[in-house]
Amino acid sequence: MNPVATNHWARELVKQSAPAPADWLGELRNKANDQLDSLPLPRRKLEAWRYSRVDALLKQQFTPVVQAPDCTSLSRPESESPYMLVFVDGWFSPALSRIDDLPGEVTLKSIHQALNDGDALLQQYLGTLANAGENLFTALNTALINDGLFLHVPSGVCLEAPVEVFYLNSASEQALLVQPRNLLVLDERSEATVIEHFLGDEDKTYFHNNITEVQLHGDARLSHYRIQDESNGAWHLSNLYLQQGEKSHYHGITLSFGGKWARTDYRSSFSGPQADCDLRGLYVVGDDQLSDFHLDIHHNQPACNSREQFKGLLYGKGRAVFDGRILVDQVAQLTDAQLTNDNLMLTRNAEVDTKPQLEIYADDVKCSHGTTVGQLDPQQIFYLRSRGIEESAATHMLCQGYAQEVIEHIHLGSLREQALKRLQDTLEKLPE
To answer: Which residue range or ranges hold the SUF system FeS cluster assembly SufBD N-terminal domain (predicted)?
Structure first.
């Protein structure tokens, strides 16, 4: 497929959507729309897409969701949090959501509602981190911004209960283009926890093209958990853009279980010294699945720390990609950055492409990176079997122990139990 065909694919999606409004958002959308023609095709010649083929995706005919769908047939997800937002086909559903007693002038609403309210903070921050000219899919999301999550926590406020967000799909038989656009802004000394669930029904085909911009100001703290469990026929692309101020802390964990093709990109940078970025991930990949993680961690301020730990569990003919890069500028002295990627292959037909990278221009740093690809230790299996444990149960125990190293960093007990249950359900379906 050539660039002209790709542009036609994107242009047709834009044509099916509502025209851009005549305001600042319209200018943002129109600029991204204009960039669609000049952006290169995401193909293997580009390093960022070397292992992530999108030919099959670009051959799909998707229908943009131009208005909020009918949600009467859907049930409200289970959540104990007083702050629960549900998006159906990328649109906020008030009937399925619950937002009770927000403290300290916290803003928690949909992007669509914030636009109607003329929220000045939305105009100030939206689109400042995500560069629409970066690739075709970022431009497409920006060109069609209509709804998503908007969270603003003002200075000194601690949002004690987590904000839980569910992305659901309607009963539509069409292959839908779903494009939530999220903005999270935490002011100085504020604190919040956000949990995102990406869910899909059975084998429905759709393209979930998500962008999240996270702005943390000085001393702000955000715990951010993301559970990707899309439909077996879904294409999932999630781009997270993070900027951290002085002494801020970001704790992010992504668990990837579902989707036909699932890719998550992290782009992190710093706007002040002594900030901490803690990223962890677990991907469980089986037959007819691709799970892809790309990290671009840019240390452009002194004395900042980053930890990136990602683990893969592959079975059947599952395929995974991990491409992690840490860039340390010359000004970023006293950087401490550690990157690891481990992969456990349960079958010979599974495949992983892993490429951790360090690019360092400072001379007073503590940095390391590493990767492993291996199989279960036969001696460990033998030891458990000698204690009367069946081979399949022994395999499950070792896999759970391997994945536990990531899951145990989930600070919320109920969410940690959900993650372990989802992992156990997958392991129980493994062939003998």
So the answer is: 22-165
**Contact residues for 375 (Cβ-Cβ < 8 A; gap 6+):** 344, 345, 346
b/e map 65-102, b = 16+ CB within 10 Å = beebbebeebeeeebebebbbbbbbbbbbeebbeeeeb
> Closest Cα partner for 292 from 316, 271, 321?
321
Is 1's pLDDT higher than 80?
no
302 vs 100, which has greater pLDDT?
Answer: 302
CA count, 13 A, side-chain hemisphere, 336: 10
DSSP characters over 217-237: -TT-EEEEEEEEE--TT-EEE
Report the alpha-carbon distance of residue 276 to residue 247 in Å, rounded: 7
Query: Does 192 or 200 have the greater pLDDT score?
Result: 192
Q: How do residues 240-278 score in pLDDT, each as one tens digit?
A: 999 999 999 999 999 999 999 999 999 999 999 999 999
Q: Are 217 and 187 in contact (CB under 8 A)?
A: yes
Residue with tokens 């145990």: 408
Question: Three-state SS for 49?
Answer: helix
Cα–Cα distances in Å, from 21 out to 17, 143, 216, 222, 400?
A: 12, 11, 29, 33, 50
Q: How far, in Å, CA of 419 to CA of 386, rounded?
A: 29
CA dist 58 and 353 (Å) reads 22
3-state SS string over 156-201?
CCECCCCEEEEEECCCCCCCEEECCEEEEEECCCCEEEEEEEEECC
Q: For residues 152-190, b (16+ Cβ closer than 10 Å) or e, as one string?
A: bbbeebebebbbbbbbbbbeeeebbbbbbbbbbbbbbbb
With a pLDDT cut of 90, the percent of the chain lying above it is: 73
| pLDDT reported for residue 3 | 46
